[in-house]
Specification:
Helices cover 32% and strands 22% of the residues. The protein is an alpha/beta fold and 339 residues long. The longest helix has 18 residues. The chain binds adenosine-5'-triphosphate (ATP), iron/sulfur cluster and magnesium ion.
């Protein structure tokens, strides 16, 4: 096991994941490297279908079988390759214990036929062996931890009697009941209105600090990630196309896809939504995955795949005294105006 000073507490190396289809194996994820330090928050952003949930499920050993296949790579967590663990080891040591996950749809996580109390107590009894009054006391503590009021009353309610925000807080309470040290939050504010979203994000941020957890925060809004994630990665069609300190990625996006994502965010209420120029180009099977949508792509982009390479930009150099992540990375031949 690694000690507190371990450089990369969580590290994905050359991970490749695909699904068996009638046409053969369809690759959906191809990540060369992704690293998260102990106690750090990493924001992974990408549009629908980019592969965010597939990555989360792969980490937890929950990839749907037999369709889902790990084709290559390793996922090192505290010195152990999770991909080499048996299902028994994943269930007994890691999943729901050291590794917790908040799934993107609260209604599919909570069982509609059991009360909040029954669902929390089941988990506590299984994990801590508590029963009766001790179990009730612990359930109320967990509901308190996620800042839900009137907990004695809440415990007897069914999921359909609660608001989306309340349901999501209960899911966070259940996910963290095991005292996890690594949390995967897969779009935890999806389908919630903006004010409720803010409350949930603030809660995750506070819990991360209180429990010094490492967090892989998955979202589709890069500005949310910038609020509380130290590092950010932009996922496009299963590949990381940009990575760096989140404020550098947001202030100085290098990849055309990240630039489009950021320019689409209205800066004030009066600003109109901007839509990126529509580019109609064929897909480049042997070239850049973003070629068909890229407004600046040139002929060579359709023939070669750009690898993630390092850039030392003014913002990354200024804001960092950290030798672990001194640069921003982008997978584009023309990022930073070079080829
Ligand atoms: N069981 C499956 N069988 C075949 N393909 C799948 C399966 N599950 C996911 N995929 C494919 O994997 C790709 C990534 O899906 P994933 O659910 O990870 O996207 P996502 O980034 O989480 O999107 P969203 O933001 O909508 O949640 C998609 O192209 C999807 O069609
Ligand atoms: S490599 Fe070419 S096509 Fe791909 S994002 Fe960069 S400029 Fe666009
Ligand atoms: Mg998803």
């Amino acid at each position: 096991m690694t000690d507190q000073k371990t450089q990369f507490y969580f590290e994905i190396k050359d991970l490749s994941v695909g699904f068996r289809t009638f046409e053969g194996i369809k690759p959906v994820l191809n990540i060369e490297g992704l690293r998260i330090n102990r106690g750090e928050t990493y924001g992974l952003v990408g549009e629908s279908g980019a592969g965010k949930t597939v990555l989360a499920l792969t980490i937890l050993g929950l990839l749907p079988k037999p369709a889902g296949m790990i084709l290559n790579g390793s996922i090192l967590f505290d010195g152990v390759d999770l991909l080499k663990q048996s299902e028994k080891q994943m269930a007994e040591i890691y999943r729901g214990k050291r590794l917790a996950m908040i799934f993107q749809d609260p209604m599919s996580t909570l069982n509609p036929v059991f009360t909040v109390g029954q669902q929390i107590e089941r988990v506590i009894t299984r994990q801590e062996g508590l029963k009766g009054k001790a179990c009730l006391k612990r359930s109320l503590e967990l509901l308190d931890m996620v800042k839900l009021p009137d907990t004695m009353n809440l415990i007897d309610k069914y999921p359909h009697e609660l608001s989306g925000g309340q349901r999501q807080r209960i899911i966070i309470a259940i996910a963290l009941s095991c005292g996890a040290e690594f949390l995967i939050a897969d779009e935890p504010t999806r389908n919630l209105d903006v004010t409720i979203q803010a409350g949930i994000l603030k809660l995750i941020d506070e819990l991360q600090r209180d429990f010094k957890m490492s967090v892989l925060f998955i979202g589709n809004n890069v500005s949310l990630v910038n609020i509380f994630c130290r590092n950010a990665g932009i996922l496009y069609r299963g590949k990381l196309v940009e990575e760096g300190l989140s404020n550098c990625v947001v202030q100085n996006p290098l990849h055309p896809y990240t630039q489009t994502l950021i320019s689409a965010i209205p800066r004030s209420k009066s600003e109109k939504l901007k839509f990126s120029k529509t580019v109609i180009k064929p897909e480049a099977e042997n070239g850049c995955p973003y070629f068909s949508r890229c407004t600046i792509g040139k002929e060579n982009c359709s023939m070669h795949v750009p690898m993630l390479r390092e850039f030392r930009t003014e913002s990354s150099a200024e804001s960092l005294n950290d030798i672990q992540n001194p640069v921003q990375k982008a997978a584009c031949f023309y990022a930073g105006g070079t080829i």
